[in-house]
Amino acid sequence: MRIVFLIILYLGIWSGLMAQNSNRSVDKIMLQIPESLTYSTKDIARYINSQFSTQNEKARAIFIWIARNIRYDMANMNVATSELNLVETNFKTLKTRKGVCTNYAELFNDIAGKVGIKSYVVSGYTKQHGVVDILSHAWCIVLIDEKWFMFDPTWGAGAVLNGRYIKQIDEKYYKATPKEFIESHMPFDPLWQLLPYPITNQEFYEIQSMVDGKKQYFNFKDSLAVYDHQSKIDQLISSNNRIEKNGVKNSLIFDRLQYNRQNLIYYRSKLAEEQLNLAVDLFNNGFAMLNKFVEYYNKQFIPLKSDAEIQQMIDTVETCFKSAHERLNSIKDPDAEIISTIKQINKSIEGATVSFEEMKAFLKKYFNTRKVFRKSLFYKFTHVGVSMNKNQ
């Protein structure tokens, strides 16, 4: 047993030394990136792809560059950062070379995506030396060679001591396991613990973060697969459900729930506007085809088209109007302004439908009439209504 133990210990030490040497090699190459390539995530990613081939090397390159080049923005540590304009915030982070935790995490995540590494930004709260922090925090979870690891590029770059930021690389927050990370980092959404037995917020406070076999098993891989295929709206709804179920222990968790609800309103409004504009497009296309059909009718179907071609014209009108209705009906929980717009569009569709039904009835009669007598069926129609403008 002693021999086996010594062999295992030796292999562990050897493996650790090999990893350190590999990291030093990656660090040296990554920190030689030309300054001109460090002001856009696209250029940084292009350099990384040109120098490294494995996911492990690429993840290390991202981590070390951010840790060495981005300073913590003490002046804005209490300022909330919007998650809705990430391109602008990442550009600003690279330009100023400073940011808060969200900026570190979003920058890491953006570059990771561009070098082909699956990564997510996770929001939550933390504790150090058994004391829970009063500020929320953000970090990344990263899939490397089919295994999940935790990265905290903010804490990995340095720390705040006595009101001053001290820049110092801390390898503890590079490529940590979920089990290690839960000792200090608690995601708002328990999904991002990536543990088969997630802990509650109460347990995090009570330092009970060991795996409890008595708990119900949580298949986070399946849940993550579901999350990846959900719409942003469904992601927010399911996330809030998990957060509430895990216990609202502090004001940070409460604020996150409110933040998610506000984002839910935003995305629903955005989706409603998209559906409204699609409905208007569909109506206008149908309306244009209806007028084209009326013009063709007024020319007594000259030049002559086949019955199938003529039928296709009127079918297109019907499909457009029907699809426009479906878009409008898909809008959930519309506000007063959207309801007013929906009514306006429906009124326009109903008005145009009167002329459409007349044309449809005529066409049915036309097709049921022997071709030699069809000419006698025609009489004049005028253009119908006016087209609509898109929702502004």
Q: What is the radius of gyration computed over CA atoms, rounded to a whole number of angstroms? A: 30 Å
Report the order of strands and helices.
Answer: HHHEHEHEEEHEEHEHHHHHH
Q: What overall form do the CA principal axes indicate?
A: elongated
- CATH names the topology of the domain at 25-187 as C8orf32 fold
If strands are numbered along the chain, what order do they take across the biggest sheet?
5-4-3-8
Percentage of residues in DSSP E strands: 5-15%
- Profile the largest sheet: 4 strands, antiparallel
Q: Give the C-level CATH assignment of the domain at 25-187.
A: Alpha Beta
User: How much helical structure, as a percent, in the residues?
Assistant: 55-70%
Question: How would you characterize this protein structure?
Answer:
The structure is a single chain. This protein has 392 residues and is of the alpha+beta class. Among the domains are: 25-187, C8orf32 fold; 270-378, no CATH class. It has helices at 2-30, 41-51, 55-69, 86-96, 101-114, 153-157, 178-181, 201-205, 220-228, 232-245, 251-298, 307-329, 336-367; strands spanning 71-72, 98-99, 119-128, 131-144, 147-151, 158-161, 164-167, 185-187. The strands form three sheets. A four-stranded antiparallel β-sheet has the order 5-4-3-8. A hairpin with a 2-residue loop joins strand 3 (119-128) and strand 4 (131-144). Helix 11 (251-298) runs antiparallel to helix 12 (307-329). The longest helix is centred in the last third of the chain and has 48 residues, at 251-298. The radius of gyration is 30 Å and the shape is elongated.
